[in-house]
Amino acid sequence: MIEAIPAMASVLADLQSLASAATAPASTAAPPTLDLTGIDDTPAPSFSQILQSALGGVDDSIAQAGAAAQAFSAGDQSIPLSDVMVSLEQANMGLQMASGVRDKVVAAYSNIMNMQV
Q1: Residues 93-113: tens digit of each pLDDT
Q2: Rg of the chain (C-alpha set)
Q3: pLDDT (tens digit, 0 to 9) for every residue of the chain, 117 residues total?
Q4: What does the domain layout of the chain look like in residue ranges?
Q5: What share of the chain is helix, strand, coil (3-state, %, to 5)?
């Protein structure tokens, strides 16, 4: 799940910059340029692949937290309560972040669809 957090943050930052560029008034300043240093020729993963892996990470963390909570409630003494609580909170935060990204994607889609051509 840790690899998914930077990927989702990057997607969110890209969407926010696109939304602000779409709503910002036109200026006479030069458009920003892309910094391509350090980029090799390997193809970048598609948006759907990044989103699928991020959601898979969230799903895995939820499954692990559920399994830890179930094992603890069944009486497994090898799992401390603090580990169960931390894993449940991590799963909760991952789910909240995924929900926030979903809301931002839907808002960006709505903004694009409402643009006048």
Answers
A1: 999 999 999 999 999 999 999
A2: 20
A3: 456 677 777 777 777 777 776 665 655 556 667 666 666 677 888 888 888 998 999 999 999 999 999 999 999 989 999 999 999 999 999 999 999 999 999 999 999 999 987
A4: 45-117
A5: 70, 0, 30
Q: How far is CA 8 from the centre of its chain?
A: 3
Rounded to whole angstroms, how far apart are CA atoms 21 and 33?
14
**DSSP H or E run through 7:** helix 4-23
Q: Enter the tokens of residue 56.
A: 């898979």
By the 8 A CB rule, do 53 and 4 touch? Answer: yes
Contact 10, 69 (CB under 8 A): no
User: Residue 4: enclosing H or E segment and its boundaries?
Assistant: helix 4-23
Cα-based distances in Å from 65 to 1, 33, 81: 13, 43, 12
